[in-house]
Design goal:
23 strands; mainly beta; binds zinc ion; Immunoglobulin-like
């Protein structure tokens, strides 16, 4: 009898060890997974051939967390998230179902006359190089968490364009809005959403003057189209520091702040990411 009770307890403790904050997720959003267990190591997950490591949650005892970013282009269907870890020399697996659902993002229809216009080779070269440089940054993971207070918005103005808005050109889905746009006239101070290290501080073709902050453990926040950049690569920045001034540099029609997030290299809704990251402390 005692033995049965003990086995049941062990099974139950295993069942409740892994917490997933949701059973379904919109494309372009992020999932937070937490596992509370003593004496485990090598905690990781697999989702659709993607491997992501868990990190120790510094705000909670014996708790590990992982952020699973869902690409905007992830197919809508049921998936299985497999979590594994090592305990007492044994590898243990746990699975959870996760459904990716349509984010129901609004469409922005843009009708442009068909032209045979081709960008100059020098511009193609420049944008290719800038993309490769940025992806190298986004795909690298600093082991330590570089913040310890809640994430905040980079400014408190009206949101003029949400993440995910579909850009339909001549009836075809061409791209989507990869961040959140905040209203900001030229020269508005922009603050760091949280502490970290500046990894990009550069003028780029599309995003203009751009600052990217590494917050550690695969999380990056990005601030584009600035008129002034106050920090350079390698600088340590604290939450609330004025990283620069808003502007209309790069490929834009007017001044505003484009604020975006990359998690493990994948572009996700920055406001959704902020609310999840702030759950790590609660
Ligand atoms: Zn934007």
């Amino acid at each position: 009898m005692k033995k049965i009770l003990l086995i049941t307890l062990i099974l139950l403790s295993n069942l409740f060890a892994l917490q997933i904050n949701q059973r379904s997720v919109k494309n372009g959003n992020t999932v937070l997974l937490e596992i509370k267990k003593q004496n485990i190591s090598d905690v990781k997950l697999t989702f659709d051939k993607q491997n992501i490591n868990f990190f120790k949650n510094p705000f909670k005892e014996n708790t590990y967390y992982a952020l699973l970013p869902i690409s905007y282009y992830q197919k809508e269907k049921d998936y299985r998230v497999i979590v594994s870890y090592i305990k007492n020399g044994k590898k243990i697996f746990e699975g959870k179902s996760l459904k990716v659902i349509d984010g129901k993002y609004k469409s922005e229809v843009i009708n442009v006359p068909k032209t045979k216009f081709k960008p100059k080779p020098s511009r193609i070269q420049r944008t290719k190089k800038e993309y490769a440089q940025a992806m190298k940054v986004y795909n690298s993971t600093s082991k330590e968490i570089l913040w310890n207070e809640d994430f905040i918005y980079p400014l408190n103005t009206k949101i003029t364009s949400n993440f995910g808005t579909k850009r339909v050109y001549n009836g075809k889905l061409k791209s989507y809005h990869s961040g959140t746009d905040f209203r900001a006239k030229n020269g508005t101070p922009i603050i760091a959403s949280n502490s970290g290290i500046v990894k990009i501080s550069q003028n780029r073709f599309y995003s203009g003057n751009s600052i990217v902050i590494d917050h550690g453990q695969g999380v990056y926040s990005c601030y584009f189209h600035l008129s002034k950049m106050n920090y350079k690569v390698g600088d340590i920045i604290k939450k609330g520091d004025i990283l620069g001034l808003s502007g209309d540099t790069g490929r834009v029609t007017g001044p505003h702040l484009h604020f975006s997030f990359r998690i493990h290299g994948i572009q996700v809704d920055p406001l959704d990411a902020i609310s999840l990251l702030n759950q790590l402390k609660s």
